[in-house]
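Researcher: Good morning. I'm working through a list of sequences from a screen, and I'd like to move beyond sequence-only analysis. For each chain I'm collecting a predicted structure so we can compare shapes side by side. This is the next one on the list. No need for commentary yet; just the structure.
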Amino acid sequence: MSYRLNPYKILRSVVILIIIICLVVVTINFKKTKEATTNEIKKDVKLRTKDFYKSKDYKNNLTLPEKNIEDNNQNVINELKTDENKTKNINLKDIQKDQNEKNQAEKNQTEKKNEDIKKAQQEIKEQQKKAQQELEKRKQKEKEEAAKIEREKAQKAKALAAQQKAKKEAEKGPKKYIQVASVKTEATAKSIVKKLGGNFYYKKTVVNGRKAYVVMSNMTNDPAKLNSMQNTVKSRYGGGYMIRGGK
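Model: Good morning. Structure tokens for this chain:
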């Protein structure tokens, strides 16, 4: 009977062997890495051994002067205070920065609000000014229209009065005047006019190539006034006058 090798069993054995070898290699590398890392740490950090109290450094530290210990403690405290102050300064700077930004924002908001208020007030003033101008224009127009109406009324009244006067004058008849006398000297004419009063005057004329001064009354178409002037002539100068004018 011949013995036959099973390839699957051989393959399984090889795989198991490889796995064992890998585990051994990984374990060895881990130990080496751990030792290397520990040695690196020991270079920077001073580790205390179990019998540290027997070491020379420890004994020297115990025999350090009290002043050195206080100085060391004070240095540590100062470093802590410095770190704390730095932290406080940073916090204060941040707080101050935030406060400044807040104050600036409030200032900007207040300025904008004030500008809006001023703008609104200016618009109100302009509207009031415009309304006042419109009111003044309307009043001026009404005043001009009223003055125009009054002028038209006055013109109509004046025209009506002129028409009525002309009508009355036409009803009274033509105007007449009294020729009182014709004298040679101006002094005599002045004397006569002075006696007769304000309704009489004289004027210079030429009769037959000679100067003469004619004394006469104002013209009128009022019979009563004409009769009154005749009576004045009769009482103050005498007869011999003539009535001239329209018939």
